[in-house]
Structure formats: C-alpha cells, structure tokens
Amino acid sequence: MMKFIDSEAALCIGKTLVISDLHLGIEYDFYKSGITLPSQTGKAAEKIMSIIDKTRCKKLIILGDIKHKVPGSSFQEQKEIPHFFSYLSETVKIEIVKGNHDAGIEKYLPGNVRMHAGSGFLYREHYLCHGHALPGKDVLEARRIITGHLHAVIEVKDRLGYRWTQKVWVRAKPLKARLMKAFASAGKIEEIIAMPAFSDFVGGKPIGEAEPMGPVMKMASMRNAELYLLDGTYIGVVGNLQGDA
User: Fold this and answer.
1) Average pLDDT over the chain, rounded to an integer
2) Which residues lie across from 62 on neighbouring strands?
C-alpha cells in the first residue's frame, strides 16, 4: 500500500520510505554566488531519520540526485556523502536510483547501499525512477510510475508582484500513445506521480510554465494532472492554473 507522508516530500510503500532529489552539496553553488550557507547534509540526515522513526520504515529508497555538482563532485560531497549513508544505513537498508547529478557517486557509497541504474526498477506494483532516462521495459508491469527530477512547484503572483511558491505533488494519467511509441505497449500503467524535491534549497520550475523535464513526465497527461501541497491540500488541475491572484 502506498501512503503520502503528511507535510513531507516523502511517501511510504509498505515499510519502505521513498524520497528524491536531495542535492547534497548544493551549498557550494550558493557560496560561489556570494551566499554563505552552512552545510545542510547533517540536517537532511536527521530529517530523514525523524521520518523513519515516525513511519517505522525498514528501508529507504532515494530516487536520484543524491549529490548536486555536475560534472564531478565537490570536496564537500566527497567528505559528507559517505558519512551520510553510513549514518542512515545503521538503521535502515538503503537503495538508490542513479540520477543525472550522480555520476561517480558509487565511489562514496558504503558497500551495503544498493544502486540501481538511472532507468529505474520495478518495486512491487510500482516503477521507481529518477525521470531523466527512459524506464526499462519492465515498467509495463507496473500500475504506477513514481519519479523525481521535476522539482515541481506552483507559483502564484499578485498584482503588486508578490510571489507565493510551494512544492507540490503531481498525479497524472499516462499518455497511452506515447507509451505505445516508446514500448510498443501501454502495459498496466494507470498513474504517474512526480515527487517534490526533498531538498529545501534546490528550487524548481513552476508547473505549467514549461515542457516537463525528462522522458518520464513527457509520457504524462500534464494538462489534466492534479496538484497537491505537501499537507495534502488539493490545489487543482494544471490546465486550470492562471498563476495570478
């Protein structure tokens, strides 16, 4: 059974916690832009542990973009990522899907962390992926695709120019024709879910302003997709959003 975690960019599949887009080490980019931001890696680990304690999950799956710098890895990432995973793996089993920011991350993973290719993998009745690469053909056996990469947010702007931005969940129906084109079958897929980024610093593109990133969300009916805030509040359908208040 799948369950969204109230007020968190996280969901549970049974006793497995799923999150996406940590972007550990993003502070280095802020520093280069003249903004001093202390490392957030420890806080991210503690926040994940708090959710694990609350949900009593036994496994953690991260859907890509564990680190931020591309290409290569910053000194901060090289130093902090091994400690991050060693700390969490004392409590839960960990699996990751390799994201487009994760080149070379295997060098920093403890041996007890399992890594899946960027195309993703079938997990029970769900297909878990980052979203930057085409899924494997076993996606056709899934009822639901769960992906990251989109960093979905909504933005509302008033007449004075003030802006309100919030992370959102995206729940969309698949475009059967695009699935047929990619896989010669639409399979069993009933829904595509885009997770909000777990990081509070990575930002995102407002839904509806641009073509969705990556091949996975391009197979979703975005105009008819439903949007929800992290606390479960239903915002509406993408095609009805005006962006102005």
Assistant:
1) 93
2) 19, 96
